[in-house]
Amino acid sequence: MSQRERQINAANLLLRELDSLYSGPKPPEGKYQWKWSEDLWSLVPEYRVSDYEAWDPQPVFVYRCKCGVDRRVHEPHCDGLVQAKVKLQKVSVTEAEFKSFKNVWMLCTWIAPPDLDSWVNQMGTDEDYPKNGRYVPVHRGPHCMVLPPTTDPKEYVRLTQYVVKRMREHAETWREEILKSKQKAERLLIPITDSKGNVLRDADPTSNYHKWRDRIKDKLRRFDPAGTVGYTKEIADGGCNDGAAV
Asked: What pTM was computed for the model?
């Protein structure tokens, strides 16, 4: 094992510290990993586009004997029937989405496999089903987090420690913002009532909910003569003016 491989393995062990920050399934290798850019591939359907179907490209199908292709329809004695399977092709992420990142270590996050039934319904079989999930680059638009190709392998661990620190800070800030937003939303919620109209929980008295409610009621009074209080006689009588209050 080369020095670079040993150092990147040590760096990936540090990234496992981030697993505790996120809920949900995670692979044994950890939710985050440094992956070599040229090893990252995606399976995408192959489409056939003609001049007449440019607006509606159709996937390319290959036809296979169903025996042993799809475990849900496998039969002990093959009857020779064939089934359609969407043709998939391997596409390098550095040739498709992230062309400016070649021959570098990219910070990647693990994506859980899709629902098996949905995959089979879309692709025709479970032959290429990514049962182990896959790693995709962490990115914001076209920008990714990478270890520059000139980086000394001895710096991998130090740089990873910095990444872990910043991601922890980001996660904490993000959770604080989510909590604040949730609390604000709870304060602005319409009061909860039971079937008899009894208020089980009113909106927070410090929120603007009551002001908004009263403002709406005032507007509605302009079109409800019976409820008009403090407005001009013309409005109360159904007259047409600018609706100014007296």
From this structure: 0.63
